[in-house]
Amino acid sequence: KPGKGKRGKGRGKSRGKKPKKPEVDILSPAAMLNLYYIAHNVADCLQLRGFRWPGAPKSKKGKNKT
User: Region labeled Disordered — which residues (predicted)?
Assistant: First the structure.
């Protein structure tokens, strides 16, 4: 129908290869300094690095509304 917008005619996402993320050393001095400022304890440190445990509370990233 002429009143409808164009759908599916624009440039879509190409399904090519995803660019690989470079391997990051989480024990590098720069990463440790960053972790020093953002983590509050050892459990927090491990959770931020991706080592979660079964009973861990879900983090509320960016949900602080005052």
Answer: 1-25
